[in-house]
Amino acid sequence: MDRMQNSMTGGGDPLDSVFKELREACPDPEASAHFMPQMWARIEARRNSSLWVRRYAEICVAATLLLALLLTVFVIPRYQEFGFEHYVDVLAAADSVRDAAPLPASDLNALESGELE
Amino acid sequence: MLIEFEIIEKAKNGDDAAFNLIVQAYRKRILGTIARLIRKPEDVEDVGQEVFVRLYYSLDQLRTPEVFEPWLYRLTVNAAYDYLRRRKRRPENRMSDLSEHQVVMADALAGGKQSAEQARRTKARETVEMLLENVSEEDRILLMLKEVEGLSLKELEKIYKIKENALKVRLFRARQRVLKAYEGLRK
Predict the structure, then answer these.
(1) Looking at the complex, does the CB of residue A67 fall below 8 Å from at least one CB of chain B?
(2) Whose CB among A60, A115, B47, B84 lies 3.0–4.6 Å from A110's, allowing a Cys bridge?
(3) Which residues does B22 contact at the CB level (< 8 Å), separation at least 6?
(4) In chain B, how many domains are there?
């Protein structure tokens, strides 16, 4: 670990002078006169684009809510008029109508004699 | 700190004049760091502006002004890294892609003679760039921040949000690799 510490804190290895030379060779540059105006233009551009995205999102949300409201008010009640009877309910209703009708006398005789079974 | 906490607080609350003061205080230092990281003088201002635009839109997330500098360095490193990744994805063939040394040589051939000082600077840059080709882009940035920008391990810990020991190990390995390359170069 000492070796590691030494190596990183400038234990006098030749890399230290190489890095120092680079630091001297590349001083901090001065910003050009356009730096600030261009930066503010970019800030404004990003602000405008994010505003546009937000507005678009708001329009989409409003349209979705409106569509949901229309479906609730107009389409769903109309659909409910057709009813939602199950197949078994329809069958039971049909059976009850057929069962209520009197059997003809010939069928009764046949039933009693066991011919209809 | 190059600027008072009060100004940072004002900028955080949407004061554009205070934000301007921050930019003016830090831009030279940030541009210097970017220049040494990306090695493309013509793109330094572009990346620098990106750093300050990101700062403008993320300043409200800054918890306390005390951590402002590591925060700004983190944005700088991220912007430089994004730029380097973009450049790697889309390699272009432009005149400006010539190395500084090649440009200087071309200028010299074109008539003017480079000064001894300029030649020394160019050589220093070329040497470090050649040496740092032996480590990954991430380690190159880390080494540059530690060795050239002079950031402490504590500062790097705040920037990278990595434990100090992990940073030490990473730096040690990267440095060993560069040292090996340096020794190979000297032979």
Answers:
(1) no
(2) A115
(3) B3, B7, B8, B11, B55
(4) 2
Can you tell me the distance from the alpha carbon of B100 to that of B150, in angstroms, rounded to the nearest whole number? Answer: 24
Is B51 inside any structural domain?
A: yes
Check: pTM over 0.90? Answer yes or no.
Answer: no
Structural tokens at position A82: 């057709």
| ipTM surpasses cut 0.95 | no
Q: Which residues of chain B are at the A interface, by a Cβ-Cβ cutoff of 8 Å? A: 20, 23-24, 27-29, 31-32, 35-36, 41, 44-45, 48-50, 52-53, 56-57, 120-122, 124-125, 127-128, 131, 146-148, 150, 153, 168-169, 171-172, 175-176, 178-179, 182, 186
Which domain CATH number covers B183?
Answer: 1.10.10.10
pLDDT tens digit sequence for B9-57: 999 999 999 999 999 999 999 999 999 999 888 999 999 999 999 999 9
Residues B87 and B145 in one domain: no
B86 and B15 within one domain: yes
Domain boundaries along the sequence of chain A: 41-84, 85-117
Nearest to B170 by CA among B158, B156, B181: B156
**Is B32 part of any domain?**
yes
User: Which two three-digit tokens encode residue B180?
Assistant: 């090996």
Question: Are residues B92 and B7 located together in one domain of the fold?
Answer: yes
Give the tens place of pLDDT for each residue, B111-164. 555 678 778 778 888 888 888 888 998 899 999 999 989 999 999 998 888 899
Domain range enclosing B47: 1-97
- Per DSSP, the three-state class of B39 is coil
CATH of the domain at B14: 1.10.1740.10
Pairwise CB contact (< 8 Å): A32 & B146? no
- The identity of residue A57, as a single letter, is A
